[in-house]
Amino acid sequence: MQIACVLFEGLTALDIVGPYEVLRGLPGADVRFVATAPGEYRTDNGRLALVADQALADVPAPDIVVVPGGRGEAGVRDDPTAIAWLQQAHTTSTWTTSVCTGSLVLGKAGILAGKRATSHWTALEVLRDFGAEPTLERVVFDGKVVTAAGVSAGIDMALRLVAEIAGDEIAQQIQLTIEYDPQPPFAAGSPARAPAAMVAFQRERSRFRQPAT
Amino acid sequence: MQIACVLFEGLTALDIVGPYEVLRGLPGADVRFVATAPGEYRTDNGRLALVADQALADVPAPDIVVVPGGRGEAGVRDDPTAIAWLQQAHTTSTWTTSVCTGSLVLGKAGILAGKRATSHWTALEVLRDFGAEPTLERVVFDGKVVTAAGVSAGIDMALRLVAEIAGDEIAQQIQLTIEYDPQPPFAAGSPARAPAAMVAFQRERSRFRQPAT
């Protein structure tokens, strides 16, 4: 089972490393880190580079596609090569997935039209531009398209995907291997649970338009 | 605040990317990915390379040290350069931390003697070899030494560390930014909660010795 993990300049590292660390445990997993061209791609703050071993063109028909988010997603949306690859890959994929604002890239490729989808909570409204129905859930399955909410949600998405593909027991084995028994110190991880002033503050600072209040 | 994220061949990517994605949000965070020599370091399955921009010697006195785990930790324990750097860095660090089997590296450097510490659950017994008290908790603070359990536990550790350093509100802001509102699909993320047969299976396959039953 070939799994294409897409990299680009300005990605958020955890968006892709979370799903990678889970999906690699699928029986027969063949993970490929890909980008427009092979090479090093830096995260949104420039402090970490991840390496794409292959070009998108080298991996034309993966079984699973994972598109992360991060500030650099805007550049991917404007890259005809990346969008054309994604459109083509989606025609043969078993699962096309995104984490965080990676869903905006799926949207630009036309993959979310008429579908329920999620994104980083600050970017949800933008999904409407692509004909999607913004859905404030952590993981959204709609047919073979699976979108996860912000950053850390890719771990939950990938575990659910493994359960769909290989069954609950394999997913549980992986969960035990990565010791995923989360104990967040605060209940601040979603706009529904974080203090209202904090949510408002992050909405104001967001580069995305926010819903009318 | 300088934060040294240590890389090595055969690391587990999520061990270091989880804390990185949290600690980068500290006010004044200056994150450096470091290794014995600058360059690309591959994960334990060889499918992803992360880039160290600097050598350990270039970052001799970080405020925070983060040592990840993964199969490659055995090589780090046998690397006198890495161990000497860690011992020296620990003399001036504000916090010396590890995720997963990264604690075995701290142990080899003599940093855990007489301390409570944790590790990946399959590696806990090995901590005794370094004079540490194995502690089956997700995050263990003992003075300035902070150890996290397996892989995904680094996210929880880093959030607690941010709260200690910069206060609860900053930690909550970061938690909201990475949308860390975990919804694991199963209750299988710790040996205490996973099915007993699954725990036994993973103990049998472990490269580490297991406690007498």
Number of helices of chain A: 7
Number of structurally distinct domains of chain A: 1
The CATH first-level class of chain A comes to Alpha Beta
Strand content of chain A: 15-25%
Spans of chain A with pLDDT under 50 lasting ≥5 residues?
none
Sheet with the most strands, sense and barrel status of chain A:
7 strands, mixed
Order of helices and strands of chain A: EHEEEEEHHEHEEEEHHH
Q: Look at the structure and give the mean pLDDT of chain A.
A: 97
Strand order of the biggest β-sheet of chain A: 5-2-1-6-7-11-10
CATH superfamily of chain A: Class I glutamine amidotransferase (GATase) domain
Report the helical percentage of chain A. 25-40%
The most extensive interface between chains reads: A-B, 64 and 64 residues
**Helix and strand composition category of chain A:** alpha/beta
Oligomer: homodimer
CATH topology of chain A: Rossmann fold
CATH architecture of chain A: 3-Layer(aba) Sandwich
Kindly state the number of beta strands of chain A.
Answer: 11
User: Termini separation of chain A (Å)?
Assistant: 45 Å
Question: In a nutshell, what does this entry contain?
Answer:
The structure is a homodimer of 213-residue chains. Chain A is of the alpha/beta class and 213 residues long.
Structure description:
- The first copy, chain A, has 213 residues and is an alpha/beta fold.
- Chain A has a single domain (2-184), classed as Class I glutamine amidotransferase (GATase) domain (Rossmann fold).
- Chain A is built from seven helices and eleven strands.
- Chain A has helices at residues 13-23, 73-77, 80-92, 102-108, 153-166, 168-177, 196-205; strands at 2-6, 30-35, 39-42, 49-52, 54-55, 64-67, 95-99, 116-117, 133-134, 139-142, 145-148.
- Chain A has a seven-stranded mixed sheet with strand order 5-2-1-6-7-11-10, sandwiched between helices.
- In chain A, a hairpin with a 2-residue loop joins strand 10 (139-142) and strand 11 (145-148).
- In chain A, helix 1 packs parallel to helix 5.
- The longest helix of chain A is centred in the last third of the chain and has 14 residues, at 153-166.
- The termini of chain A are far apart.
- The model of chain A has no long low-confidence stretch (mean pLDDT 97).
- The interface between A and B is large, with 64 and 64 residues.
- Strand 4 of chain A pairs antiparallel with strand 4 (49-52) of chain B, so a sheet runs across the interface.
